[in-house]
Specification:
By secondary structure, the chain is mostly helical. The protein has one domain. Helices cover 73% and strands 0% of the residues. It has five helices and no strands. α1 crosses α2 and α1 runs parallel beside α3. The longest helix is centred in the first third of the chain and has 23 residues. The radius of gyration is 13 Å and the shape is globular.
């Protein structure tokens, strides 16, 4: 794994998750690093956004749940921001 390439890949996948939720579910997840990290980790971004959108239409307005990866990002958020 080349960090110069993998960081670009990670950023692209996270941007795709943000776009999927914006386009399909009509919500902005860009300010939720735990959710975007979780979505990067679990994949199937567009399918998950469609599922979320359908649940919202049925009155089940539950945000995606963060997993251990999202929790870790939240836990290390200040250190990550310092690196950027």
């Amino acid at each position: 794994m080349d960090p110069d390439k993998s960081l670009h890949y990670m950023a692209a996948v996270i941007q795709d998750a943000i776009e999927a939720y914006k386009d399909v579910a009509k919500v902005d997840i860009s300010t939720n690093p735990d959710i975007t990290a979780t979505l990067y980790n679990v994949g199937a971004l567009w399918e998950r956004a469609a599922h979320f959108s359908q649940a919202r239409r049925q009155g089940k307005d539950r945000w995606p749940q963060k997993n251990y990866y999202g929790w870790l990002v939240n836990y290390k958020l200040e250190a990550l921001r310092a690196l950027l």
